[in-house]
Fold:
Amino acid sequence: MSSSQQITGQPASKNPPETGATPHGDIAKFWAQLREEAQLIASGEPTLIALVDDVILSRDSAAAALGARLARRLAREDMPRNTMEPLLYGVFERHPTIVDCAMRDLLAIHERDPACFSPLEPLLFFKGFLALTTYRVSHQLWHDDRRWLALYLQSVASEAFAVDIHPAARIGCGILLDHATSFVVGETAIIEDNVSILHEVTLGGTGKETGDRHPIIRSGVLLGAGAKILGRVEIGTGAKVGAGSVVLDDVPPHTTVAGVPAIVVGEATEANPAIEMNQHLDCRGMI
Structure:
């Protein structure tokens, strides 16, 4: 079962297609757009021709491009590229909803990150996107009872991208991992669609208890840099968590929390903080 089948929510676009639809309503159209932008890179920056050709221009689908890009980053002596790439591509081909989620992630990054001028940019360069897509493969392998291989990919992704996501965690689509360094997600964590997360965020447990012990992050949430959310707490729809906060209790929907330990400091005035990316803490109604 893929992540997008497990968790439903609102699509990533500000002018959204139907729930579950691909960017621009059609992966093939979105893929054509990425190829056009790759042609511009190849014609304008000769030193990147080999990369762009290998990942985009020589490929006939988004699935093939994702497999090639990840294989270039993840291959190593114990699993060379000629083994890694067919593995990744096979998972994408058998489970097209993973490709759909990846395309929605690209669109979310392009819409929300002012430093991102093209959806092709994260596919080529953003380790948050690459780490999340690797997780999506490992998550599928986990549910296919190929758990050793899923854990292998988790380990390699942690080394390559400094992002550690347990394959059993459940993550929706339209996710922005901004910078992503030191992002950690525990085994039973749930992240719904349309969430924006900055670097050094931890979704962790509080001890060695078993069962559901990691946070639930609802749709529309914005998690500030360095936030630590610990235990089976729920961050409600459209909430904001301030940078550096330590959250130990549930956060009501559409509120802002900050501090160590985190307390409610006001409302989240945006309808969807994950899309607006406004990290200012509105302290009206502070307690």
Notes: The longest strand covers residues 263-267. Residues 1-21 have pLDDT under 50 and may be disordered.
